[in-house]
Structure formats: structure tokens, C-alpha cells
Specification:
five-stranded mixed sheet, alpha+beta, 45% helix, binds magnesium ion, binds adenosine-5'-triphosphate, 2 domains, 238 residues, Heat Shock Protein 90, Helix Hairpins
Length: 238
């Protein structure tokens, strides 16, 4: 099982994941050192070096978060969020370039007048919501459909659902996707570190919430349904 991963295995996976963006950056730097480069070529090299640097940063951040979670040191800090609708709109708008360039039919349904919640919104936003949206975009081919909805489930919790009609996840693999370093077997096409859902699951759990795999759209793809209590402390009985 992936949860039994040994320290040395982690080290070899991390170094392997660092190697390819580092090689890309070095290649682009070599390219940029040439004298006869056109403005367009320069722009392309800078863009691709920036993308590779971002991948390295993301990997480092995910690993740090994973290590802190496992040491019991990555605790959530609840804060009052009174514009949840705005927060979710901002989250979706950070993906607008990718949505547009893949011509995705992105259907958003965010309930108006969502209640004020007490969440660690940064952790949920960066490690959970961003990851499930970016997964849906990564695993859904061009012109596919993604449905994202946020609504009050009952008076105590918010339900967030994301469904796509992409490549989906086979039944046997569905129970391992929340484990660390569980990546898609085709890493050449679907790059990733396999830490997104592991970290997301842990932060949702710390909020006393749930995350479940559900059916996707059009008899294809996959879906995730998340519920987070409006006030996680209250549900703990504190
Ligand atoms: N929407 C989806 N469609 C198909 N497969 C998915 C989807 N979401 C997750 N998966 C599967 O679950 C695995 C784990 O997802 P996770 O977000 O943890 O890792 P990742 O996206 O590969 O890497 P990272 O998020 O760390 O960059 C993915 O590699 C993929 O195999
Ligand atoms: Mg991911």
C-alpha cells in the first residue's frame, strides 16, 4: 500500500519529480544564452522556464505540507469567511485561462447568500478546491464538460461538488487516490505528484468534513463530493 511508503522511496520519487522541471529550466537557460534569439523565441523560453519553476515550487510546497501533516504540525486556523460566494468565484476565475484554452464547457452553480462559515479558507482553497478543479481540468479532454456546484446542504454544512466527463478512474483505483504519491500511470501525459488529494483529504478531515468519489457526467469521468461543516468547532462539540 502507498501509505506504507518508505523514506527512501519518497526520496527517490521526489528527486525524480524534481529532475524533469530542473532539466527543462536548464535547457531554457542555455537557449536564452544564445545571441541570435528572436523576441518570440525568448518569450517561449521564459514562459516554459517559468512553468517548470512553478512545478518545482508546487512540489516543494506539497511535500512540506505533507511532512507537516504527518508530524501533526499542520493545524488549521479557523477564520470567519463572510463572502463564500465571492471566494468560490475567485477560485474558478483563476482557472479561466485553462478553461478557455481547452474550450471546456464549465458549468458553475454557486448558491447565492451562502452562510458565513468558520474555515481555514487558505488551506481549503489552495490544497483542496484548487486541486480538485485542476484535476478535473487535467483529466478532461478538450471540449469536455465540468460541473462545479456549491450549496448549503442542511443548516450545518456546505456541499461542494465537482463532476467531469473526462477519462475517469477505474473502480479498482478509486480507493487508493487519497493515498500519498498516487499518480496517474501515464505520467508523461498527466503530470502530477500525487499529493493533491492526500493533502486535501487531511485538511477536509481536520474541518470534520467528508470527501467522496461519486459518478461523473454523461456516463464518463468522475466526481467528487465534499461536505464541510459551517462551523467545524461546533460539530466537534467544543
Ligand atoms: N478528475 C479526475 N479524473 C481522473 N482521474 C483523477 C481525477 N482526479 C484525480 N484523479 C486520479 O487521482 C490521482 C491522485 O490525484 P492527486 O490530485 O492527488 O494527484 P495528481 O493530480 O496526480 O498530482 P498533484 O495534485 O500532487 O499535482 C491522479 O493522479 C489521478 O490518477
Ligand atoms: Mg492533483
Amino acid at each position: 500500500m502507498k501509505s506504507d511508503i518508505h523514506y527512501n522511496d519518497i526520496l527517490s520519487m521526489v528527486t525524480h519529480d524534481l529532475k524533469s522541471p530542473m532539466t527543462a529550466i536548464m535547457g531554457e537557460l542555455d537557449m536564452l544564452s544564445l545571441d541570435n534569439l528572436s523576441k518570440k523565441e525568448k518569450e517561449v523560453s521564459i514562459k516554459s522556464a517559468r512553468k517548470a519553476s512553478k512545478n518545482i515550487l508546487r512540489l516543494i510546497e506539497s511535500i512540506l505540507v505533507m511532512a507537516k501533516i504527518e508530524a501533526g504540525k499542520e493545524n488549521i486556523e479557523l477564520q470567519t469567511v463572510d463572502d463564500l460566494q465571492g471566494v468560490f468565484q475567485d477560485i474558478v476565475s483563476t482557472f479561466k485561462y485553462e478553461i478557455k484554452s481547452k474550450q471546456i464547457n464549465f458549468i458553475i452553480k454557486i448558491e447565492k447568500n451562502l452562510p458565513t462559515v468558520s474555515w481555514d479558507i487558505d488551506k481549503l482553497q489552495y490544497h483542496c478546491f484548487n486541486n480538485i478543479i485542476s484535476n478535473a481540468l487535467k483529466f478532461t479532454p478538450e471540449k469536455g464538460t465540468i460541473q462545479f456546484s456549491v450549496m448549503t446542504q442542511d443548516k450545518n454544512s456546505i456541499a461542494i461538488s465537482i463532476k467531469d466527463d473526462g477519462i475517469g478512474i477505474c473502480k479498482e483505483k478509486r480507493h487508493t487516490i487519497f493515498e500519498k504519491f498516487d499518480t496517474h500511470e501515464n505520467q508523461k501525459v498527466f503530470k502530477g505528484n500525487g499529493l493533491g488529494l492526500y493533502n486535501a483529504y487531511n485538511f477536509i478531515k481536520q474541518h470534520n468534513g467528508t470527501i467522496k468519489v461519486v459518478d461523473g457526467l454523461h456516463n464518463k469521468g468522475i466526481g467528487f463530493r465534499i461536505t464541510v461543516p459551517i462551523n467545524p468547532n461546533k460539530n466537534k462539540g467544543n
